[in-house]
Amino acid sequence: MAFIYYLTHIHLDFGTISQLKAECERIGIRRPLVVTDKGVVAAGVAQQAVVALGGLPHEIFDETPSNPTEAMVKKAAAQYRDSGCDGLIAVGGGSSIDLAKGIAILATHPGELTTYATIEGGSARITERAAPLIAVPTTSGTGSEVARGAIIILEDGRKLGFHSWHLLPKSAICDPGLTLGLPAGLTAATGMDAIAHCVETFLAPAFNPPADGIALDGLERGWKHIERATRDGQDRDARLNMMSASMQGAMAFQKGLGCVHSLSHPLGGLKVDGKTGLHHGTLNAVVMPAVLRFNADAPSVVRDNRYARLRHAMGLPQDADLAQAVHDMTARLGLPTGLRQMGVTEAMFDKVIAGALVDHCHKTNPKEASAADYRRMLAESM
């Protein structure tokens, strides 16, 4: 049975940050905690949101790490409760928005965060008590502003998903003007994340025609504009279309994702050179060619001419090698094209495979991958 759910209020255009106070009033948020990071603060973008609040009392948490962690969720949730906040405004990339979703759970629900993880059966434990959230994305990649899920690194090292319609932001303010200063490397990496979402959700075998249509249109926009946005950060048309592609990818992926994400999630939880947090979008770009090769003979992909439809949306010849096209785009954008360049070694494979097999995206791939399949995809991606 197909379950289709599109209920987020979305403002998409230049200047829509001006709607922030009105959205707080509509939702009933009187004292928000603004969740952001120090980079967004330093760039002056967080201040734009504060100005748009028009004097509304608020608190700021600006310690979001590059990949949201349970430790920071706990710290911010304590600030939320101690300051008497009644809602959240996430201003930043997917990390800030996902961190805010973690806060929405922990600030209003009892117990440890891990008990609410999807693979722990926690989705049903997340209730309407979750703190209301307004999402203001400053990158075009994760689409978390219109998604029901969050990815958080727990204190035990696992990088897990948290999913509930109660976590869906009450409002998404998608102002591409906030992305004009985004550096080229981050534009490319987040943009490939959006493209991966559109590709994977279109290939997922579930029956959801609206998601397919949204994903294909988002892919067309993303593939056409990512190089322009990366080359010229002030290209307003490219920035608008990349923000739309990001939003569309996440609107569509309620249908499901696949092996790209079941691999990139545990890869993102690895400690490389003593640090946790390989960039999610870059990981998606690097492993996507191997996953595309693996999925090429999946029954639903062959039956529905899925690869031909992807090629059409991407403006590629019908005999084009999709995997090679993604690899070549990643190279043109100046991103790593192999996991080894990112510090991943073969000794890490067992941990990644174990995580991939239990990841929430594993079962929605067009065909189920075995441990041996995952090992082969990792080897091909090195």
Summarize the structure in words:
There is one protein chain. This protein is an alpha/beta fold and 382 residues long. It folds into 2 domains: 170 residues, 3-Layer(aba) Sandwich (Rossmann fold); 198 residues, Up-down Bundle (Dehydroquinate synthase-like, alpha domain). It is 47% helix and 10% strand. The chain is built from 15 helices and 10 strands. The protein has a 6-stranded parallel beta sheet, sandwiched between helices. The longest helix is centred in the middle third of the chain and has 23 residues. The chain is globular and about 55 Å long. The two termini are 38 Å apart. The model has no long low-confidence stretch (mean pLDDT 94).
Tell me the number of strands. Answer: 10
The CATH H-level homologous superfamily of the largest domain? Dehydroquinate synthase-like - alpha domain
Strand arrangement, major sheet = 1-8-5-4-2-3
> In sequence order, what are the helices and strands, one letter per element?
EHEHHEHEHEEEEHHHHEEHHHHHH
General shape: globular
Stated plainly, the CATH topology of the largest domain is called Dehydroquinate synthase-like, alpha domain
Tally the structural domains. Answer: 2
Distance from N terminus to C terminus (CA atoms, Å) equals 38 Å
**Structural class designation:** alpha/beta
